[in-house]
Amino acid sequence: MHIHNVRGQLFGAAERVLLRDGPDALTSRAVTEEANCAKGVLHRHFTDFDAFLAELILDRVRGIEDRTTALRAAAGTGSVVDNLADALRDLFGPITVAIVALVTFRDGLRARLREAGLPGIPLAVQGTAMIAAYITAERELGRLADDADIDTLAPTLVGAGHLLFADRASAPPQTAAVRKMVTTVIAGALRPPQS
After folding, report:
1. How far apart are the C-alpha atoms of 38 and 3, rounded to whole Å?
2. Residue 171 phi/psi, 5° resolution?
3. What is the pLDDT averaged over residues 65-84?
């Protein structure tokens, strides 16, 4: 039987296993069983399981790059705090938090990601670049101070955001908690609205 969009089905299956059972349960067998296909299907499309996982993460990285364009375009609209809080809530959805745990869990995967040009913790690194692009645009528009330190603010927002969302067993943090964190981090750089 021919399977349409094999990569998409396998990626979706991997995400379901990862969310339901955690990184230690994510195996090629678990993925193919979840996708309801033969184990050989995965290995026909990817050299090994770490190559599959690296492609899954690269696919998610491309999604962040797409969201960067939209977030940067939002500069100058709405409130800076709300825009950042929404971006962090979107960035740290359950699958991103689970993938960060997966990258930490698998040495071979980290090696593959470095080979693919993704050092550090992918998704967090790209999320930091996304936030940096947005707050740079807001600084250029005068909604953040001219001396706002983008290189400190962006990783601080992403790091604090990850800590808020990192507990995979509990419900995500309330919007008010995310807004409070963002407000605290950018308080010194945020200019009052012009009337």
Report:
1. 11
2. -65, 150
3. 94
